[in-house]
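Components:
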Amino acid sequence: MSVDRLTIEASALSRRYGRRWVVRRIDARFEPGTLSLFVGPNGAGKTTLFRLLAGTLRATEGEVLIREADTDRDLEAAEVRRYLALLGHEPGCYAELSGPENLKLFAGLYGQPDDEKTLEQVLDRVGLGGVGIRPTSAYSRGMLQRLGLARLIVQDARIWLMDEPTTGLDEAGRALLRDVLAEDRERGRTLVAITHDVASFGDGLDQVHRLERGRLVGGAS
Amino acid sequence: MSAMGTIALILKKDVLVELRTREVVVTMGLFALLLVIVFAFAFHVDMDSARRVTPGILWVVLLFSATVGLSRVFERERQGGCLEVLLRAPAGPQTVFVAKVLGVLLFTTVVLVVTVPLMLVFLRVSIPTEGIGLFITALALGMYGFTSVGTLVAGMLSSSRLRDVLLPVVVYPLVVPVVIGGVELTHVALGGGLPGEEVMWLKLMIGFDMLFTVIPVWLFPRVMVD
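Structure:
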């Protein structure tokens, strides 16, 4: 079954390590066709929140619901894997493989077109056209981040969760990220990023949540 | 992408990466060879003693070198955050688990094909023709059981800072039944043991392997979430 418009909702989401609450009672809802940011200083709990939303970390309390926007139907685990894409701190690429080989692998895993022409177009889109066959171990941090972005595009998921997606990007790279996000927001994707660098995202933001010591402060702006 | 297609893709990727780096097979192979040489010099006294110590030596070599391989295969996935991406593939974490088990088994088999004959030569032990089938069965059942348990534990420890230390500490006690079964079956295959003894050890190993096919497949998705 194909779904198009998805919402992601955090309800009283909390995580504790030992006796310390790292994320405490986060309530937020993200709609399709929007770009939302969580911003906050180092140690505010941003990455923990990212992992909770991504489902790679268990919540101590609360839950994350991923639903079809039009029918309010909760997605099953397999659908969540298919329609939710992650760009974490690390780019998620094999150092021994080239950029095109990495993309081909992930396109295959996600059941997306993996022909050379399609992948070359995606690489062109993120400014990595003509990178050739050199392994990604020879890539700069910014190039790896662009490749991670290419992986998101290839995956063609409906929700993108990104943790510090501007890491390593130069000004051209940040402009590219803004363009890609603006374009995909128009396509109805639900975009959520966690960052300490709100300025890099420009003006096209729908929600900005401030996170301090694991709690949301001041409501969405 | 179907589960079989996903397994094939991950396996193909593992083989491609290994062909480029050769770090898993070469590391495992050299380590196994070193152990074989040390044991051959330490324990070979005469033909009779060699026949008695060979099963134990074989399984220690096998266990230690496979642990090295297991550790490297998961380290590769962990680097660059690849494991997290793989686990989110639509075919599901169980599929990733099966692919990793097959990958480790493949690399271990390559190492065994080279080191086992060398070990037999160094220890001057020959396998009777009628024992060859049992010998190969023991190796296959033992390696499968170890790899299945090891892959589950390696995955579980992949986010732990002490993963390299904890892997053998956690895995070895769990695989004791299959290792004992393997040692005894090898002993029978080399011409020792009592008539019909192999049936009991075969049942033990097959039972263990069946149990540790079901349990890790069920547990793997659960232990991969922190």
